[in-house]
Amino acid sequence: MTGKRIMLDVLGGETVFPPPIWMMRQAGRYLPEYRETRKRAGGFLDLCYNPDLAVEVTLQPIERFGFDASILFSDILVVPHALGRGVAFEEGRGPVLTPITAAEVGELDAEAFHVNLAPVYETVRRLRKKLPDETTLIGFCGAPWTVATYMIAGHGTPDQAPARLFAYREPQAFARLLRILAEQSAAYLIRQIEAGADAVQIFDSWSGVLDEACFEAFCVEPVAEIVRRVHAVHPNVPVIGFPKGAGHRYSGYRQKTGIQGLGLDWTVPLAAARDLQRGGAVQGNLDPLRLVAGGKALSEGVDAILRALGDGPLIFNLGHGITPETPIAHVEAMVRQVRSIQG
Ligand code: CP3
Questions:
Q1: Is position 126 annotated as part of the catalytic site?
Q2: What totals of helices (H) and strands (E) does the chain contain, helices first?
Q3: Residue whose C-alpha is closest to residue 67's, from 25, 11, 14
């Protein structure tokens, strides 16, 4: 190994055989060592804000599988938390936030934002020192729309009806919320880059529930704003966008937002993915449940992606986060299969 970060080459538009591989949510509950550290941490947010333990869980999947990239261990909801909103993670329920009202949008307080997030920056600094040279370190944030859905509803919902209604009924407060989130998220990513992140990913997990006009205004524009701000300071740091569920709107997303890597969910047809790959690197897009099932479902899914996308700039990944019930042996089999591809 020469210490070359091949994922950065791919983000620059190069084709690399075999392609770099990592998994969204690669540090998580499917790993017994994660569950053990998680118990010692106390609450989930305590884990995110404890650099000793956050470094430990970030490194676990790298040590076990030798992935080409490591993603900072944190959560997209530390941003509203650092803006003074109530955020808690309840066992078996996921995130619970104090729902924000239109009036409260004007009271969001960014004064202590970076002080509150200092432990995250410290985690990034330590990670860059501890990771193997050839491992790309990815920082991340949630996209303003996805973070806003949790801030408004106070929890996950299947269709984000509370946030969509808020946007229609309170357009000014909603636009202001997206603006604040875009500004603060950009500043957050810039600090992560300055602490040592080689690339950053913007997760828009709920972009699939919006109509055309709302997708442009709530997903495309705020992400484009974040990319502009990050690139104004760090023009050479690649940004990966992940507009999950964007469907037809995947086409045009790269150009309109200015991202370098396009994260594909597993519903994107591979022929469409090939077209998208003409514009630059794509990342994805194995159905995480193929990884749970293993066997033929897994090997056929991996093979189809490598055949369709292997001769262009590809970062092999899942089409969404790995789920807790995934057997570790299946992850090992996937990594073996991807790394045995013949160029
Ligand atoms: O990928 C990684 O390994 C880095 C860490 C990471 C986490 N969350 C850790 C986490 C990242 C990149 C995220 C992003 C995130 N968080 C997103 C966007 C990506 C996606 O999955 O759509 C979203 C929407 C969230 C908000 C969030 N955090 C939810 C809805 C939940 C509950 C669902 C669940 O899986 O339990 C979380 C909790 C969470 N974030 C866990 C982990 C490992 C599990 C909590 C635990 O360990 O108790």
A1: no
A2: 18, 9
A3: 25
Q: How much distance in Å is there from the Cα of 75 to the middle of ligand 1?
A: 6
Q: Of 25, 126, 191, 254, which residue is the catalytic one? A: 25
CATH label, 6-340, candidates 3.40.50.720, 3.20.20.210, 3.40.47.10, 3.40.50.12780: 3.20.20.210
Segment 27-55 shows an average pLDDT of 96
Closest Cα to atom 8 of ligand 1: 75
pLDDT in tens, 265-283: 999 999 999 999 999 999 9
Residue nearest atom 43 of ligand 1, based on CA coordinates: 28
Residue 1 confidence (pLDDT): 47
Best of 21, 22, 24, 25 for a ligand 1 pocket test (most atoms within 8 Å of beta carbon): 25
Q: Give dist(CA 61, CA 213) in Å, integer.
A: 40
Q: What is the pLDDT of residues 44-67, one digit of tens each?
A: 999 999 999 999 999 999 999 999
Quick check: is 29 catalytic? yes
The mean pLDDT of the chain is 97
Q: 88 CA distance to ligand 1 centroid (A)?
A: 13
Higher pLDDT, 17 or 176: 176
Of 256, 255, 266, 330, the residue nearest 292 (C-alpha): 330
Unique residue bearing structure tokens 């913007």: 202
